[in-house]
Amino acid sequence: MIRSLLEDTAARACTYLEGLDSRPVAPEPAAVAALDALDGTLPEGATDPRAVLALLDRYASPATIAEAGPRFFGFVMGGALPVALAANWLASAWDQNTGLYNITPATARLEQTALRWLLELLELPRECAGAFVTGANVANFVGLAAARHAVLARVGWNVEADGLFGAPPITVVVGAEAHPTLVKSLGLLGLGRTRVTRVPVDAQGRLRVDALPAVSGPTIACLQVGNVNTGACDAVAAVRERVGRDVWIHVDGAFGLWARAAPSRKHLLHGIEAADSWATDAHKWLNVPYDSGLAFVREADALRAAMAITADYLPTASAWRNPSDYTPELSRRARGVDIWAVLRSLGRAGVGGMIERNCLQARRFAQGLSAAGFEVLNEVALNQVLVAFGDAQRTQRVIAALQAEGTCWCGVTVWQERTAMRISVCSWATTDADVERSIDAIQRVAAGTR
Ligand SMILES: *Cc1c(COP(=O)(O)O)cnc(C)c1O
User: Fold this and answer.
1) Ligand 1, closest atom to CA 255?
2) Residues enclosing ligand 1, CB less than 6 A?
3) Per-residue model confidence (pLDDT) at position 160
4) Residue 449 is assigned to a structural domain of this protein
């Protein structure tokens, strides 16, 4: 029963993935309308699991967007490497609740190894603690929770015990281009979404180091590597030099942090090891399935103080760290298994090569589209390309027509008051031929759009 169900499901998944290259990237409206078949009333009795899977595949598969395919360039999303998907399936079969080392040693060990490999790959301080969480949003929350603990502990305040009522104020500095999830994380931590000092940015969205205010007392500075529109990276080392050692620097590197693994790009992230905490996504550029984000914190004890369930920070009975001492969750899936599998399979050179390839593909998009007469709005240093097709209305019409045409999928954004199409190249599956095919489609669609 289990074997036939899972083998049947694996066959369906293969058929789905094999079909991604030849189907329109966005689902057909008729397929979306047909989702009604999965709605209806709560069934009273049982249905055979194979029939349930057949229903899902028949109705939901065609209504998905081909995010796992080679020509989805929307937002900053990434696909899922086959080895990551397979490891994810096996880990789901294990069903390990990876909160406590003694109960789930295999997955806890795999995550410890994955963490060590990641710190090496990304050239971050080896003493960092890590948290395997759902995404960069929560990873930002985790890094900032450690920051909140540390800057208040240094002035004698225990924020976990006593909260923020009556606490010494914390100065929070953010770039004007901080990602909205970082701002949301500040709100979740009681630090305020708008009670922040916003620092102006340059034309690419980089925080202007010369515009940093003088700060004193408990301070957290939030930087980013990889602006969600331009891909631009803040100058972390220069900020550290400016603010001194006592300011906690948190870096949102949701996708940009992976440029550290690419020999020809890592100079863009020069000096980021001078920060105190870093957030990134594995489900973006590392190409593991959703959901998977990572927080790294240099002061392991600060993260543990912020996240451990018990207030006594005594060593636990097991020789290995309990993963739940470092995450907001107690119970969770073993996210690190997919990451371990990618690193074990691709190796340092393979991860770097994937990042390099996507960056070159972004550059080719920029070159091809500007040669065709369209305006590229950003310096294409990483994987992000912003293109305008004239004014806002026409740009929007071109994007809508491109999405309907189906060869590739790109979204709309507004960059410094210009409406633009955003092309984000971050999938292992994208070949150079896919880029050429997409450039052709964009040109064709733009030519047919008034
Ligand atoms: C995508 C992104 C986030 C949010 O990540 P999630 O994985 O959606 O939680 C945060 N910051 C930046 C810069 C991003 O690109």
Assistant:
1) 15
2) 76, 135-137, 179, 181, 224, 226, 228, 252, 254-255, 281, 293
3) 96
4) no
